[in-house]
Amino acid sequence: MAHPARPSSTVPTTSSKGASQPDSMQLALSRTWLAHERTLMAWVRTAASMITFGFTIYKFFQLEAGNRLARPGLITPRDFALMMISIGLLALVLATLAHRRETEDLRATSHFQRRSLAEVVAALVSVFGLMVLVATILRS
């Protein structure tokens, strides 16, 4: 039994309803775009975890210090919190810049135009992280 001819995967085809289906190049661009979005969102999760972990450690030991005398150590909980928050913010900024560079290259080579929701989320988490950093610096 002969198989019906399949349309070429590089040429847009028309379905029975008349809607145009994307070609393989468009699908590849979409997959690449989504991979960049997923990667930035993974960095957002990592940065948010570092920021909240640092602040939580700081607040925990701040509450514990009220119950007993704090012993000075090599690194204070506040210093640890500042390092964790700063590392989280730095990682997020670097990941956002890399994402922006890669998506600009994608746009330049293929005229692929989409707005990045991951960049908006990264900006919001950065603002949150900066607020936490300032709060940690100002409260000694």
What does this structure look like?
The protein is mainly alpha-helical and 140 residues long. It has one domain (27-70, 77-138). The protein has 3 helices and no strands. The chain has helices at 24-67, 77-110, 117-138. The chain is rod-shaped, with a radius of gyration of 24 Å. It starts with 23 loop residues before the first helix and ends with a helix.
Question: Secondary-structure map with pairings?
Answer:
Blueprint: H1 24-67, H2 77-110, H3 117-138
Helix pairs in contact: 1-2, 1-3, 2-3
Overall helicity: over 70%
Low-confidence stretches: 3-15
Main sheet attributes: strand count, strand direction, barrel closure: none
Radius of gyration: 24 Å
Order of helices and strands: HHH
**Termini gap:** 80 Å
Mean pLDDT: 83
Query: What percent strand?
Result: under 5%
Count helical runs: 3
Structural class by sheet pairing and helices: mainly alpha
Tell me the domain tally: 1
The total strand number stands at 0
- Overall shape: it is rod-shaped
Task: List the main descriptive attributes of the protein structure presented here.
140 residues; mainly alpha; 71% helix; disordered N terminus
Structure described in brief:
The chain has 140 residues and is an all-alpha fold. It has helices at 24-67, 77-110, 117-138. The chain has one domain.
